[in-house]
Amino acid sequence: MYSKFLAAGAIVAMMATAAVAQSTSAQSSSQSTQTASAKSEWQASKLIGTNVYNAQNEKIGDIKELLLDQNGKIDQVAVSVGGFLGMGEHDVAVNFSELKWVNEPVRSSTSSNSGATPLSTTGSSTQDTSKRTYPDHAVLNASKDQLKSMPQFDYNK
Fold first, then answer.
1. Which CATH superfamily is domain 44-149 in?
2. Residue range 47-69, pLDDT digits in tens
């Protein structure tokens, strides 16, 4: 009878040890996840839809898709140019390295007395960008017409 209690006690002790080991490894993997997210990494889902401007602060398109190589590195970006409400859009692929990423909001290139609506405020931004996990916008050294003249990106290739 005592041997059954001892065997049951030993089994309970082994299960408790395994449970403690699992919770310890779960905590350590949770801590490594927190450490990785604290780095200067961007959320890919936030990059999709990001506006793309040229050097003159004119909006020339927005990011429609991120194209990864087989190692998971972003190789190209599909930029959607033109169109209205999804009609008449022209998607082109540009190398990720051609984009310059900017954290500050776009500054208006028009003078304040021209009557044109600025793209964004020219004063200091009240939003704290240091905690964002994505850039405000991208800059590409191209015009809207240059992008429209590029071949349509084929998603099926």
1. PRC-barrel domain (2.30.30.240)
2. 999 999 999 999 999 999 999 99
SS3 category, 149: helix
Is 144's pLDDT higher than 50? yes
**93's tokens:** 């692929």
Q: Which pair of structure tokens corresponds to residue 42?
A: 């961007």
Compute the distance between CA of residue 82 and CA of residue 119 in angstroms, rounded to an integer: 17
- Edge-to-edge strand order for the sheet containing 59-68? 90-95, 74-81, 59-68, 51-53, 137-139, 100-102
Nearest alpha-carbon partner for 61 in 96, 95, 98, 90: 90
**pTM to 2 decimals?**
0.62
Residues β-bridged to residue 74: 68
